[in-house]
Backbone:
């Protein structure tokens, strides 16, 4: 099956010589949620702008639904909905009219029944006659999504969709995204919240300095790169690790009260059993054991080498 979005060796160099994209190739499958992560200035916005036809690539090709975004701009753009990070809405206009206008911009016939379905899905139906200025920040973001969906796109770009909203509303938005996926919409998400990508994405793409560093299914990525950390709390602090424990890659933390052992969950043997035996043989008395799984944020930081804004 042909990917919904095909990006082939795309580069973008601006007039000042800055190379925002450098040979990016990426296929986005129909109906998936792809989280695009990268530090500020990594090239996320430029890549999205190129796919949406807002900026033209210097080299390479991009196709959306089989349409070249340059040679067949109208066909490609009609398949794309874009939800920008900035809330830029006419404050005195009413919700329904705002969404209705967006549908008309794409030449779609009037269909208030379809718009009602979208507004209900986004919990906006009760606000359909409210003016934009009367809405909360979270509701305004939902209106942005409704506008982007009004012309029935097959691909939806969400640029920081939950920026500035509270935790409860953020989780509500995650449910909205999942429902959109169930409806067959392909979703590309950029986010400043690593847990957002970890919660809802099917695949993760990491971009840095205009290059794609990694594209992988989220679960496979977590399994392949994920490590577990065993924290061993001692009954009494020690000044240094016993010589018998040398070579195990152990770290002594918290003023000698905690020994940290990192192991790969993919390995057949973790080495924990022999470690506990050796600790006992060395005369160390254990107070508690705790394990911690590497998060997607840990993996991301390791890939780009700098936490930055983690998005």
Residues:
């Amino acid at each position: 099956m042909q990917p919904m979005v095909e990006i082939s060796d795309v580069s973008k160099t601006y007039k000042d010589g800055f190379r925002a994209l450098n040979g990016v190739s990426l296929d986005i499958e129909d109906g998936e949620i792809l989280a695009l992560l990268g530090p500020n200035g990594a090239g996320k916005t430029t890549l999205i702008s190129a796919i949406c036809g807002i900026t033209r690539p210097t080299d390479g090709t991009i196709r959306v639904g089989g349409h070249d975004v340059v040679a067949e701009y109208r066909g490609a753009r009609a398949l794309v909905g874009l939800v920008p990070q900035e809330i830029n809405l006419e404050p005195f206009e009413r919700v329904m009219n705002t969404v209705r206008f967006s549908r008309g911009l794409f030449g779609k016939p009037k269909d208030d029944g379809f718009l009602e379905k979208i507004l209900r899905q986004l919990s906006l139906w009760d606000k359909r006659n409210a003016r934009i200025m009367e809405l909360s920040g979270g509701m305004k973001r939902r209106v942005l999504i409704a506008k982007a969906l009004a012309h029935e796109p097959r691909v939806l770009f969400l640029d920081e969709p939950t920026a500035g909203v509270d935790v409860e509303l953020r989780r509500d938005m995650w449910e909205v995204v999942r429902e959109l996926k169930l409806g067959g919409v392909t979703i590309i998400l950029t986010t400043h919240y690593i847990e957002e990508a970890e919660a809802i994405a099917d695949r993760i793409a990491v971009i840095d300095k205009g290059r794609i560093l990694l594209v992988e299914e989220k679960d496979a990525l977590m399994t392949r790169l994920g490590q577990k950390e065993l924290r061993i709390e001692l009954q009494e602090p020690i000044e240094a690790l016993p010589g018998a424990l040398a070579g195990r890659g152990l770290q002594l933390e918290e003023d000698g009260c905690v020994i940290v052992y990192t192991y790969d969950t993919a390995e057949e043997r973790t080495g924990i059993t022999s470690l506990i035996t050796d600790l006992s043989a060395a005369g160390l008395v254990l107070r508690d054991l705790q394990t911690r799984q590497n998060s997607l944020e840990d993996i991301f930081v390791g890939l780009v080498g700098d936490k930055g804004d983690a998005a």
Notes: The domain at 227-293 is CATH 3.30.70.1560 (Alpha-Beta Plaits). The longest strand covers residues 19-28. Residues 167-182 form the longest helix (16 residues).
